[in-house]
Structure formats: C-alpha cells, structure tokens
Amino acid sequence: MNNSHKRIGGEISDRLSNLPDALLIDILSLLDAKEVVQTCLLSKRWHNLWTSVPSLHLSSKWERERFDNFVTSFIHLQTLSIRFATFQTNSISFQTVKSLKMKSCFFYCLSEPTFSICAPRLKDLKFTQCTGSKITFKDMSRVTNAIISNSYNGRNYYNSHDLLKGISGVEYLKLTVHYLKAECDTPINQPN
C-alpha cells in the first residue's frame, strides 16, 4: 500500500486531501502553470483551487487573448515568473501582479511598432534577456525596484527614455544594455 494512503475502517484515505486549502495553494505555487491547472481534475475540491494560487511560473508561446484569459483566471495572482515565452501580440497586461520576472522572452508585435507591457499594481520588476520588438512599460508608476538587462540589435534600437517613462516612481534601478550590432540606422538616444 502506498505510504500516502492509510486504511481507515476499510476505506482508503489519502493524506493530501486532509491538508488545508492554504497549504495546498502554497504547494501549487511551486509548480509550473500547466501542472497547476491540471490539478483541477483531481477532485471536486481541487476544481477551483488552482485559481487561488498567488504566484505562477509560465513558459510557452502565447497569443494575447489566450494569455489574458489564462492569467486573469488566477484571482489572487501577485507574483508572476515567465521564462522562455513567446508573445505574438501588441501588448500584455497584468492587473493584479505585484512582482514580475520575465527572462528570455521574445516579443513579436503584430501591428504596432512597439510592444507595451502594462502592470498598474507592480512593485518589483526583473526583466532580463528579452528580445524582439521594441518594448515600452506603461502604467507602472508603483514600481519601486527594477532590474532591466537586455540586448538590442540595430533594427530594434534602444531608447531608455521611452522604455523607462512608464516606471517613473522607481527607487532602485539597475539598467544594463548590450548592443549586438555596431551598424544602426537610427541614432541611439539616451537621457543626460
């Protein structure tokens, strides 16, 4: 008999079902998003439990509508970690997220010249090794800590003023920029 099951009065009981929801939600916060959602199939109790996870780890290819629908399913989402994701849209928005980590993401704008990321409640931002379309941060005035480290090529030039104007209230900023090509048709503007 499996160690996680115990026979009580002829019936098998599993210890996991006896844990409080708060502890189960903490455990789910450690899993990848796909695994978190799959737990809804375990039992009726688990059906909506996944929507209460406060932190989420994503990696995948996303179109805006699909991404927005998925992220807004998490009603208590405050921490979001995204790695190796591709976004094929013009913008993404995180309405409840307070801490956002994006690493090695690729942004591809469908019709706009600039990809925008909006997060009105965001306080901590870590944005590293992301590439693709030119990116701007919008409605992030609550950000107090920001670490931004990216590489840019000649086509998607970097204008730090455009990127940073959306996070105007920042108290700590670490900005690292690497230019991959010396040939650049557009001048690189940097504030004095």
From TrEMBL:
InterPro entries: F-box-like_dom_sf (IPR036047), F-box_dom (IPR001810), F-box_SCFL_complex_component (IPR053197). Residues 13-65 form the F-box domain. Pfam families: F-box. Signal peptide: none annotated. This is F-box domain-containing protein. It comes from Rhynchospora tenuis. The lineage of its organism: Eukaryota, Viridiplantae, Streptophyta, Embryophyta, Tracheophyta.
